[in-house]
Amino acid sequence: MKTFFRVVSFLEGTSYLLLLFVAVPIKYWMNDPQYVKLLGMPHGLLFVGYLVVAFLLKSEMKWSIKNFSVILLASILPFGTFYVDKKYLR
Questions:
Q1: Were 9 and a residue from 26, 39, 52, 81 both cysteine, which residue would form a disulfide, CB within 3.0 to 4.6 Å?
Q2: Between helices 65-74 and 34-61, what is the axis angle to 10°?
Q3: The model's pTM
């Protein structure tokens, strides 16, 4: 389950960065919302998957409330999921 969470975490973080730093600038600078539509749904599904798997893994990993809060907060911060992988999952 931990390996699965690492994969979901990596994919969620990558999709978030692509959305923020590629798709959104293209949308506003080139007036082309196609990439936001293309990346938005997969990112949303990965975001929800990240949260669900984090809740399922909480007791197995024996995360404290503080650590669990950091892990959840990381899902909305750019590069946050990569920090979680390095600090809590390796």
A1: 81
A2: 170
A3: 0.91
Q: What is the largest CA-CA distance in the chain?
A: 47
Number of residues assigned to the chain? 90
> Where do runs of H (alpha helix) occur along 2-79?
2-18, 24-29, 34-61, 65-74
What separation in angstroms does the CA of 33 have from each of 14, 24, 39, 41? 19, 8, 10, 13
* C-alpha span between 69 and 51 (Å, rounded): 11
**Tell me, what amino acid is at 62?**
K
Dihedral sign (CA 35, 39, 44, 50) = negative
